[in-house]
Write a structure and sequence with these properties.
Blueprint: H1 5-29, H2 33-38, H3 45-56, H4 59-72, H5 87-100, H6 107-115, H7 122-155, H8 158-161, H9 174-224, H10 253-262, H11 267-283, H12 290-296, H13 301-332, H14 351-359, H15 364-400, H16 406-430, H17 434-445, H18 447-458, H19 464-484, H20 493-509, H21 516-526, H22 533-542, H23 552-577, H24 581-601
Helix pairs in contact: 1-9, 1-15, 3-9, 3-12, 3-13, 3-15, 4-7, 4-13, 5-11, 5-13, 5-23, 6-7, 7-9, 7-14, 7-15, 7-16, 7-17, 7-19, 9-13, 9-15, 9-16, 11-18, 12-15, 13-14, 13-23, 15-16, 18-19, 18-20, 19-20, 21-22, 23-24
Amino acid sequence: MKLQFIDIAILIIYLATMVLIGFYMKNKAKQDKESYLMGGKKLPWYMLGLSDASDMFDISGTMWMVALCFVYGFKSIWIPWLWPVFNQVFMMMFLSKWLRRSNATTGAEWLKTRFGLAGKGVNGSHAIVIAFALISCLGFLAYGFVGLGKFIQVFVPWDYIKDYVPFHVADKYVPHFYGIVFTLFAMFYSILGGMHSIVLGDAIKYIIMTMACLAIGVIAVQHLATQSLNVPHGWNDPFFGWKLDLDWSKIAAEANQKIADDGFSLFGLFFMMMLLKGVFASLAGPAPNYDMQKILSTRSPKEASKMTGFVSIILLPIRYTMVTGLTVLALLYYNQIYLKDANGITDFEKILPATINNFLPVGVLGLVLTGLLGAFMGTFSGTLNAAQAYIVNDIYLKYINPAAPTKKIISMNYIVGVLVVVAGVFFGFLAKDVNDILQWIVGGLYGGYVAANCLKWYWWRFNANGFFWGMAVGIGAALLMPYVTTGLPLFWWPALFVLSLIGCVIGTYAAPPTDMAVLKSFYKNVKPWGFWQPIHELVVAEEPAFKANKNFKLDMFNVALGIVAQLCLTIFPMYLITGMYPQLAVNLAVLAVIVVILKRTWWNRLED
């Protein structure tokens, strides 16, 4: 075991701090439901943005990104478009302020501002968005749980502690055992202190992660100063053609097999599918998870926009400093790290823990380990908070006990939190690996989410009945797809989208339009652009001074610039660490120009 006393001490101090935060924030969180779930909507935008960025900096995702960077090189910057990562840009430019204007607590509660409290399909739409939120939250909890266990196992070999565990654990379940132990810490502080604990814990974690990432970047540069990377032709070029054309056969033949297994060989087709899916998914707005909860927790629509823009700035350069640094070390010493799984197959997701364990000095190792463990706890707690919000606010308080006193609501949050964690751990046991869960969530499940959630913003005639049937068909098809077809879940997406869209349209015209008073209120408050002309005419008839939102072209222009800027932030540490200084200079120049333009076209025009 490579961990030394100082490394273990750093880790223990961090865990103890998280527990103390839970106790410290307990009374503040207990003030009322809004304080527990949303920090009372009093937290500043930069703290919520830092917390949101910290929640996205998770172990499982970072393990996946390091594996991608190793195999795909600089072209790996495109693959996170599977989420898609650029949905943050769409939200930054216009969707966050639209969402925040609702003043809702959850995505399900938001629906009443769009579809009203009564009418055909209203209860169904409410139920289906809760179902989607809980399925996706449980999926992300399982995803984090699997990644955590694989990560810890490298640092704490089972042989060192099995004699101290009073029961037998089969080898294949060792990662799950570790996952359960550290999940209990995350559960404790997030359930006790709610959003207050989560945001403060995330701030501490971000500071630790920043120090850890910079240390890894410096170490990688030092090692690279006296050696050179042995990589295929085109590895350090972010641009690509129809085919990937990366040949690892003379360096690490297993990487060619991973490319084949991933299904990314025809990279041009894969990219077009990602872009198509990504644009529609981004136009749909945030999914009902921790990201949406942070937006709804901001103090105003203007601060919601600032918060979302802040996320990419503080997340991407720091995260990719770690990703690139670990990739460089893994490439330099590939033959010295063991990446085989229990079946003897090379598992590239083990690059991150194996590289950290082999090449980082004492102290830095403890800092990195603590930061990544904190990353898991932050993501886990944010997702758990979102699941609690849906169950307590949208099920318990709506259908079971609407008059529940604050003390009872907080107790229910505690109980629900424990049950959600148990369910997430259960699904973690069923999952094979991180990539399997990730691909199903972003390629399959979200395929059933997109159509209905696009139409709700941009088409006035779309109603609750259409929302219910669109979501029901999409989610049902996503759950069935793994049993009726094979291949990359991303390629199921067009079929899921079309099926869901058909459900939306048929469901919409099978019921009357939403009540006009609800539509007028939504249109006046949110001020969306899109197909709202009939409602606009009704509003103007009552309020002649009302002005329609005509910023579609400007918003899309800003989105395009924002996506390029996001890519520049991502590739900046990759150029820096690998010593590609001419490309780095061009990258920084492009970024500077975009910042100057967006200052005039976005920042100066922010409004509530």
